Amino acid sequence: MEKELDEIRGRNGGETVEIKSLRVPEVVQNGSEASVVLDCDYSVENKAGLVVKWFFNNQTSPVYQWILNKKPQDLGVLKGKLNLDYRASDDETKKHRALQILRPTTELSGEYRCIVSTFDGEASEAKKMIIYVPERTIELKQVKPNEDRVKVECSAEGVYPEPRMTINTNNAASNRKEPLPIETIKERTDGLFDISVSILIEDRELQTPTTFSCELSIPEANYTVHRQSVYYPGPNEVRHRK
After folding, report:
1. Which positions ≥6 away from 178 have C-beta within 8 Å?
2. What is the rounded (10 degree) CA torsion for 66, 70, 75, 78?
3. 136 Cβ neighbours under 8 A, 6+ residues apart
4. Which residue among 60, 101, 122, 220 has the highest number of C-beta atoms inside a 10 angstrom radius?
5. Domains of the chain by residue range
6. Which of 109-118, 210-219, 227-236 has the lowest mean pLDDT?
7. Would the pTM of this model clear 0.85, i.e. be above it?
8. For 39, phi and psi rounded to 5 degrees?
9. How would you classify the pairing of strands 99-102 and 110-117?
10. Which of 178, 95, 196, 192 is nearest to 139 (CA)?
């Protein structure tokens, strides 16, 4: 029985192979870093057959492989995008365990899995890195289709990953019905997103003045930006934006 448990521990990396820490940047702004390091620190009881592999998303082939005493290899989506001379440790059994990705861009946003194996066992861990693009432009505008109503529209261009957008007001009549927002999200050929949200409101449902607030967020990147506009109901409205 004890022998069977030892074999299970070996296969699962319980004792013979253990990943001590996996350090992956959670959020990186596109084009803001010359390089980022994804580090997979581990311990092995026996270095025989030591191989470190990194996988990207659900791909079955590795994007990086280092076999002890051999040169590391950049593969797949990371081909030509790694510093293969980077050393994470002076320990010869760990020196090429990490990825140094050069000039990371949005196509490298996703989950990275480190797998460490020897002849005795294997261990793996995964973490996600989001490479985001803030809006190229964002605009909050008011349009009067007639004297009694206002259309408020917020739009942003060139965002990644897929954003969310809302329009709110902090100074509306208590009996006002919430307008139904119209949202449009478009994924462009370059992989970025354009988004817009608009609402149509009767002037009689608003107080004077009313402040509209647009919030653009990228949930996966914990990124949020706001725009505000002050509106004065009536035919001679005055608008202020900030």
Report:
1. none
2. 70
3. 156, 157, 158, 159
4. 101
5. 17-132, 137-171+179-231
6. 227-236
7. no
8. -120, 135
9. unpaired
10. 196
Look up residue 14 and give its two tokens. 């319980």
Nearest by Cα to 193 from 155, 142, 228 = 155
Residue 207 pLDDT > 80: yes
**Residues in contact with 234: Cβ distance below 8 Å, sequence separation at least 6, in sequence order:** 147, 203, 208
The label of the residue with tokens 């809302």 reads 166
Helices and strands counted in the chain (H then E)? 1, 17
- In order of 14, 46, 145, the CA distances from 116 in angstroms are 12, 12, 63
Locate the DSSP E strands across the chain: 17-23, 27-29, 35-44, 51-56, 64-67, 73-74, 99-102, 110-117, 122-132, 137-146, 149-159, 164-169, 182-187, 193-202, 210-218, 223-231, 239-241
Task: Give the fold, CATH level 3, of 17-132.
Answer: Immunoglobulin-like (2.60.40)
Confidence bin at 221 (pLDDT 50/70/90) = very high
Residue position matching structure tokens 């050929």: 189
Alpha-carbon distance of 93 to 47, in angstroms, equals: 7
Tokens of 131: 């490479």
Q: Is the CB of residue 152 less than 8 Å from the CB of residue 229?
A: yes
